[in-house]
Amino acid sequence: MLLQLHLLATGLYLGTTAGLALFTVPRARRTADGAARRTALARCLRIYDPLAIALLGVMVMTGAWSITEYKQALGTTYFADFGSHLVWKLGLAFLVVMSGTYIAFGLGHRLVRQDEWGEAVDEAKLRSMTSRIAGAAWFTVALTVATIAVAARR
């Protein structure tokens, strides 16, 4: 059950982050008016941000719990059998979490707040934030796929 929850959270996170890069950002970029563009992004980010953070939390907790059970099963051979593999997976997972929280808190939350507060739209800043959201989303997708590949190798 724990593995299925971990895989479900990972798949949902990967899909929503890819969707952000594939659909949300391009749709917003096709909107000519800056305020409408920011509102379109904010509408999606209001859902994406808390969902992504929750999914990241589920991924980390279920992964940690699974490792604990695996460690108990292997006993003293745990580090010799699994240590180097685990270092790569945990390193990549850490980068996924950092990149994912950058999208949600570093970019998404600021953009949503600007929209909710009705701040004036600075076209250059909005273009920059939109590009950073797209770039970070693609980077996070690549990191997530790399983490899955390392996990599947074992």
Features:
mainly alpha, 0% strand, 154 residues
Give a description of the structure.
With about 150 residues, the chain is mainly α. The protein has one domain (about 1-154). It has 4 helices and no strands. It has helices at about 1-30, 35-75, 80-115, 125-154. Helix 1 (about 1-30) runs antiparallel to helix 2, helix 1 (about 1-30) packs antiparallel against helix 4 (about 125-154) and helix 2 (about 35-75) runs antiparallel to helix 3. It is elongated and about 60 Å long. The relative contact order is 0.16.
β-strand percent reads under 5%
* SSE order, one letter for each helix or strand: HHHH
Shape: elongated
- What structural class is derived from the secondary structure elements? mainly alpha
Measure the end-to-end span.
19 Å
Number of domains: 1
> Biggest sheet: strands, sense, closure?
none
Radius of gyration from the alpha-carbon trace, in angstroms: 18 Å
- Total strands: 0
pLDDT below 50 for ≥5 consecutive residues: which ranges? none
Mean pLDDT rating: 93
The level of helicity is: over 70%
Helical segment count: 4
